[in-house]
Amino acid sequence: MTQGIHQLTASMVNQLNRVDVISNNLANANTVGFKEENLAEGTFNRYLREQEKKDATVLKESMVMDTIPKIDASYKNESLGATKLTGNNLDFALKDKELFFKVRNDQGKIEYTRDGSFKNLAGKLVTQNAFEVLDAQNNSIDVNSPNLRESIAVIKTDFKNLEKLGNNNYKTVDDKNTELVVNNDEYIMQGALEQSNVNTIRTMVGLIEAQRTFDRSQKAITGIDQINSKVIDTIGNQR
Predict the structure, then answer these.
(1) 159 and 223 belong to one structural domain
(2) Which residue, 15, 28, 107, 139, could crosslink 214 as a Cys pair with Cβ 3.0–4.6 Å?
(3) Whole-model pTM over 0.85
(4) Number of folded domains that form the chain
C-alpha cells in the first residue's frame, strides 16, 4: 500500500509541473516567436539504468521497487509559428527555425531572440524591452539606414545550444556552435512577424488531462488511506 502511495504522490507532483508548463504556454499563445515547451515523463528505473551504464552501483532491489514516475526532461516544439503580415517596416520574421536575431541587453550582454517586433528608440532599432538590435559587428543599428533589413545580424544555431532567459530571449551554451549568416536577405521577411507556435486547443486539452490525472491520483491516495485505516481497526479489534 505504501509503495502505491509513493507512486501516486510522485504522479501528482509531475502533473503539477505539467500544469505549470502548460499554463505558461497558454499565457504566451500570443507572444511573438514563442516556442511551446513540454515535459517528458518516465520512471525512476530509467534513471537507475542510466546510472548502471556509468558503472554506478545500483541495487537490484531498487530496479524492482523504484517504478515511481518522474520528469525525465523538458523540450521545445521547434516548429515555425505562422507568419503574420503587419505592414510595419520595423517588424521582421525569420524563415528558418534555427535562426535568431542578436540583441544586447541593458547589462551589455549578448542575447538571442526570434521576436522581431522591433521599435525606434532615439533613432536606434531596439526590441520591445529596449534591448539594442545588433549588426554583424555587434553595433547598434540606425532605423533610418537605407539597408535596414540587411544590417540586422542573424545567427544560426540549434535550440539544444540555447538556454532560456526572460523576455522570450536565449543565451548560448557554446558560442563556437553558432554561425553568422552572411547574407540574410533570403531569411528575413520585413513587415511580418512569426506568431507563437502554441496550439491553444491542444494545449487546453493537455491542461484538462493533467488536472484530471492529478484528481484521480488524489482520490486513489484517499482510497488507500481509508483501506489502511479499516485494516488497522480490524486488526486492533481482533486483539
Answers:
(1) no
(2) 15
(3) no
(4) 2
